[in-house]
Amino acid sequence: MKRLAPVLPMLLAVACRSTDAPVPAPATTAPPSASAVVPPGAQAALDRLDPRADVPLLPMMAHHQKQNMRDHLLAVQEIVAATAASDFDAVDKAVGRIGFSEQMGAMCNHMGAGAPGFSAQAVAFHKTADTIGVAAKKKDRDGVLLALGATLSTCTGCHAKWKQRVVDEATWTSVSSQPPPQHSAH
Predict the structure, then answer these.
(1) Bridge partners of 162?
(2) Would you give per-residue pLDDT tens digits along the chain (186 residues)?
């Protein structure tokens, strides 16, 4: 606990809020913006400055991935708040949204089909998040925080290595060796 003492106030100050306060749902659409039009050459200039590896994705896949990542951040916020309140059942519930499942693994493999190494790193994140739940089941506050720290380290490592690259269907098929996902009418 002594090792965590300097970190805990920062975690609580940044991510903790009253458990009575409602957690806002992530926005599903962005408001219109004047910056929606990218000047010619701007994307190429950004690409020259950003050396991270591309994860090629169709537009709907990129949007879905960003929605999932926003929910991961909300889950982390809930984990920190629940840990501060010693509500280990709530910690475990939030971990359920970021932990590994066969469905999550399949989604990671699909999203990373065009970027060798991405899927393994994404799956490692979800499996590392499972360790938070293991500690929560033991009601081990220090264990939860250490596992959360390890999980966040996988997040920052992934974001340091990868960036989304929105591509068209022909490019997706070429780089992923997969046909574009079929749109279902629900």
Answers:
(1) 53
(2) 455 555 444 444 444 444 444 555 555 555 656 556 878 898 889 889 999 999 999 999 999 999 999 999 999 999 999 999 999 999 999 999 999 999 999 999 999 999 999 999 999 999 999 999 999 999 999 999 999 999 999 999 999 999 999 999 999 999 998 877 775 444
Which residues are CB-neighbours of 54 under 8 A, at least 6 positions away?
A: 115, 162, 163, 164, 165
170 domain-assigned: yes
The answer as to whether 121 is a domain residue is: yes
In a domain, 2, yes or no: no
Rounded to two decimals, the pTM is 0.76
Ramachandran angles phi, psi of 33, nearest 5°: -140, 145
| Domains of the chain: total | 1
Q: What is the CATH number of the domain that holds 164?
A: 1.20.120.10
